[in-house]
Write the structure tokens for this entry.
Amino acid sequence: MNSPWSCEQAFSRNAGLISPAEQKHLMDCLVAIPGCGGIGSTVAETLARLGVGKFRLCDPDTFDIANINRQLGATTLSMHQNKAEAVRDRILIINPAAVVEIVREPVSRENADRFVFGCDLVLDGIDFYAIDARRALFQAAKDAQLPAMTAAPLGFSATLQVYLPNKGMSFDEFFDFRVTDTYAEQILKFLVGLAPKGLQRSYMDLSFADGEKQTGPSSILGTQLASAMIGGEAVRLLLNRGGSLPAPWFRQFDAYKQQWVKRYLWGGNKHPLQRIKLMAGKQMMQKIGLWDQLVNAEAS
């Protein structure tokens, strides 16, 4: 016979890390997660098991077999199912008391403000190549005075950057996005700015990236690490514990190389060393053909 559902019992092992009052508070927190693939599906489950009780999700895509290697929501049972709906189902079988709202349209400059409205925390689960939607999301979070995070799985590593209202740099400021930037230039700035130390570079072969198909090397190690890093920071932010370090602070942990870096990057991508890395990055992308693929993707 199945035991009756109890939030207190379900999250009782969080005790000693999260107080009973904090646990109740998490049940009332609303987290916005646009994109329910590698990061989105994994971080949604991480937060659900921490006891976060309210979610707003969106993703127009469906799971397919190529997602199995890294996306927690991708199983043989969820093939061809809408990603947001599949993640909702996973959340509800973890916590039947959770409230999950699905927004049908993807985040854009036209609707980003509505997507983040009323949330306590905004998390970036948007596809790596969807840079315009990502910029719209962070601008909407900034306008709404909401904390927001982006975490990238890069190879066997993960990065984390936090953006706070009225503190530190904004998303566009950190990556030094400009109105004159082409799509390829924005992707380059995003890649280099995500991991200024580039712990993954020594073993990650970007010749397997395809700017037109919008694919690249990926691993479950990266998505799980990124989700854990988001989860730890979400505990700080949602429970008002303080101590969060906003951009231009950045972090990266590499499970394969067993290396960790947490540093303050003055000026973000405007830092002189970052400018050198951007030039080197463009040359590398041109050499392997990725730059032309990104140019073609923008034109199509």
